[in-house]
Amino acid sequence: MNEMWTILKGVQWTTEFLSRAGSASPRLDAECLLAHALGVRRLELYLRFDQPLVDEERSRFRELIVRRANGEPVAYLTGRKEFYSVTLEVGRGVLVPRSETETLVAEAIEHLRRRRPDLPRDALDLCTGSGAIACALARELADLRVDATELDAEALAFATRNVEQLGLGDRVCVLQGDLDAPLDGGQRYSVIVSNPPYVRADSPDAVESGVLQHEPAIALFGGADGLGVLRRIAALAPARLHEGGIVLLECGSPDQGHAVAAMLEAAGLEDARTGPIDGGPTSLVRAVRGASR
């Protein structure tokens, strides 16, 4: 970076560099990092492509590029992540929300909008992490109340701040504890949602090296078969759902999805179904408690 760099040249060079480093989205990464280094919105770069970068800007940008090339998530470098309809604070100690999880949010919103008239407007988000699902649901549905639980203290701190920063504290309650342990014994919900840890502990190669190196293992690995937390959610779901309520779970491979669907039906839920999310490697599992009129 010795010659004069414009914004366009910086984006082009960094895109090529990150592509060689193995980034799955090098152009987007380059734009997000440069926008962060300049303190502007990403789309503003397109209006300023001919603008030269001063030494201080190039230095900040160079540091971000090196860290990204070493596998650090872009969201950790910028400190934020866009998810569904919200912008979340993220960083080391919390899982970066993925786009595939937005499918789970969309399914939950559709159910809540079309629910039976007698079903309350409430949801339970287990393993909330950054609070992404809970916050997105509450932002989209202005009369929805959400309880969100998280065991890990670091992740819980991010979720709490995100709820506060988004002005959702009156309708989203973040609780520390293991799954439904922080809740009153008789509490039930119209929707239970969760993106729990589901990677097999004996298959770390299934996770990208950058993810494995930087993101919290507690949010990734679900025991020997990857089903440890999902198995427990399936067991508690019937007692936590209103009649006609649904549970929506993100999990891994199609085989894992079918296993989770079988667990939900064995626990007493009905109409358990699973399918891939956007044709990718993850699955969405859905099941109903009783009639879903």
Descriptive report:
The protein has two domains: 7-70; 80-288, Rossmann fold. It contains ten helices and nine strands. The protein has helices at residues 7-20, 26-38, 55-69, 74-78, 101-113, 132-140, 153-165, 209-214, 228-240, 254-266; strands at 80-83, 86-89, 122-126, 145-150, 172-176, 189-194, 241-251, 270-276, 283-288. It has a seven-stranded mixed beta sheet, sandwiched between helices. A two-stranded antiparallel ribbon has the order 1-2. Helix 7 (153-165) links the parallel strand 4 (145-150) and strand 5. The protein is elongated, with a radius of gyration of 21 Å. The model has no long low-confidence stretch (mean pLDDT 93).
Determine and state the CATH class of the largest domain. Answer: Alpha Beta
The backbone outline, from C-alpha atoms, is elongated
CATH-defined topology of the largest domain: Rossmann fold
Order of helices and strands: HHHHEEHEHEHEEHHEHEE
Beta-strand percentage range: 15-25%
Name the CATH superfamily classification of the largest domain. Answer: Vaccinia Virus protein VP39
- Proportion in helices: 25-40%
Which secondary-structure class do the elements indicate?
Answer: alpha/beta
How many strand elements? 9
SSE order and pairing:
Layout: H1 7-20, H2 26-38, H3 55-69, H4 74-78, E1 80-83, E2 86-89, H5 101-113, E3 122-126, H6 132-140, E4 145-150, H7 153-165, E5 172-176, E6 189-194, H8 209-214, H9 228-240, E7 241-251, H10 254-266, E8 270-276, E9 283-288
Parallel strand pairs: 3-4, 3-6, 4-5, 6-7
Antiparallel strand pairs: 1-2, 7-9, 8-9
Helix pairs in contact: 1-2, 2-3, 5-6
